Amino acid sequence: MNGVNKTLYIPLYGKAYVSRRGLFLTDKKAEEIWETEGFELRGRSRSKWLAFYMGIRSAVFDGWLKAKLGELRDAVVIHIGCGMDARAQRVALEGRRWYDVDFPEVIEERRRYYAETADYTMLEGDARDPSWLSYIKENGSAIVLMEGVSMYLTTPEMRRLTDSLCAHFDSVALLVDCYSTFAARMSKRRNPVNDVGVTEVHGIDSPDAYVGERLAFVSEHNMTPREYVNELCGIERLIFSWLYAGGISKRLYRLYEYKKA
Fold first, then answer.
1. C-alpha to C-alpha distances, 16 to 34, 95, 189, nearest whole angstrom
2. Angle 48-71/234-244 helices, nearest 10 degrees?
3. How many C-beta neighbours within 10 Å does residue 131 have?
């Protein structure tokens, strides 16, 4: 796999780590895959603080998705840049069309651990080239998740993707986490993704960067809600609060919700 594809092991490790400790979410599939693959992470990418952050971030995405599934009962779910994530299992998907999308080599790896069903499909595709949308026959409502993906796309590439989603579907609900431009600059030297060979990432300083004629900004979400941070105890809670849940973190990472205008 290339560097970008290898970044999928960082959140996989994080979810496996917190699941084993009984924190934030339960993800036995992440535990299984991590133990089987034995991929070696180095440096900051194996930090327990980063693992906590990855676990909380995934729990926030899961919670938002569950709420949207209740609101949009006919919507299909599209997880762009799914990696090895088991979100469809964690949210107990039943009778809902779900598409997991990632690079061909990632999907090939996924097929070792996941099986398609009548409702669940894995699609080979690049977020920068949304031609894979032609394989999705549904065109009503879509709930779209992009977790840990936008930083690998330029703003024009993100706009192309969101324009394509809005053109394909009657309604779109999108949740996406983003780097700030400051975080993108800092990432050249101090980002855990450097440990798996990624050297170029992108950021935005306003949610309006992705807004256009077809896409509207809805709201900003808290990436590290206190309810999850409080699952940590003692010094771990204090250090995590300073590193990932305080003002420094908000200068680096943001979580935005959009909808089709």
1. 7, 27, 26
2. 70
3. 9
Residues 88-127: tens digit of each pLDDT = 999 977 789 999 999 999 999 999 999 999 999 999 999 9
Task: Copy the structure tokens of residue 228.
Answer: 């999850």
Q: What confidence score (pLDDT) does residue 135 get?
A: 96
Note the pLDDT of residue 4. Answer: 41
Query: Residue 47, Cα to own-chain centre: how many angstroms?
Result: 19
- Amino acid in the structure at residue 127: A
pTM score, two decimals? Answer: 0.92
Angstrom distance (rounded) from CA 18 to CA 72: 30
User: CB neighbours of 160 closer than 8 A, spacing ≥ 6?
Assistant: 128, 130
Q: Which two structure tokens, joined as six digits, stand for 200?
A: 């170029």
Q: Does domain 3-260 have CATH number 3.40.50.150?
A: yes
In whole angstroms, give the CA distance from residue 229 to residue 234.
11
Close Cβ partners of 197 (under 8 Å, ≥ 6 residues apart): 2, 3, 6
Chain-centroid distance of CA 12 in Å reads: 11
CB 127, CB 165: distance < 8 Å: no
